[in-house]
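[INFO] parsing input record for ATP-binding cassette domain-containing protein
[DEBUG] input buffer:
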Amino acid sequence: MTEKEREQTNELLLSFTDVAYVRGGRHILRRVNWQMRRGENWALLGLNGAGKSTLLGMIPAYTFPSKGELIVLGETFGRYPWQKIKERVGFVSAALHQFAGTLNSETLENVVLSGAYSSIGIYREVTEDDRARAKQLVDEFGLGYVGQNPYGMLSAGEQRRTLLARAVMANPDLLVLDEPCSALDIRAREQFLATLEEKANERTWPPFIYVTHRMEEIMPSVTHVAILDDGELVAKGPKKEILTGERLSALYDVPVKVVWEQDRPWLIVTARS
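[DEBUG] output buffer:
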């Protein structure tokens, strides 16, 4: 490994230092300390309501730290024009469906294309290069058969793959996947995860954070796991060190064991003693 490659491998992409978030007098997040470096793909695991979306929403500034320091791609929140950071981060979330009124009337290709401009909908002149890249991504993500159908006519699984293609349209430096398989049936979920896994093995694919409360969605390309419990980051590190039956039994308050199959963890509930 060359010196340049070592520097790139050690590059700090994300850093939370003593981050807290308070809303309505309630502490949603407390004392979060977490770093992510290039070459790592993280899963953020936790129960519903643990604060996962709130924490990761700070990266594109959907939420703001009440306390502590947030550094993304080498820049400190509050000391840098954050729109420039948002343009370097791809974001996939079921929450984007709050913009369904705009999304549903757009063609699949235009939804993908909007990722080049960090917008929901197209509000500026489109370059031929961007149009060509959008068409390429539609094909790469196995969506070419949809043609010019509106986004609102796609299945839930097709919509999530469309949002994934949109997220990488601008060649981001970091990808945040916030519960992207929420509400998908098992076939659509596995199609989405297979697409993500295939792409994650390409050298040009950006490092990512995958937010979930379902451990079976943690694919082989995920290298590290952080566990958020009631607003606190209670464990973080290489995935096989973190995903143990003892730790997860404490998290879920249910006796469980972890079975690894093809480098993918599965949770099995065991009988209470």
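[INFO] The longest strand covers residues 12-23.
[INFO] shutting down worker
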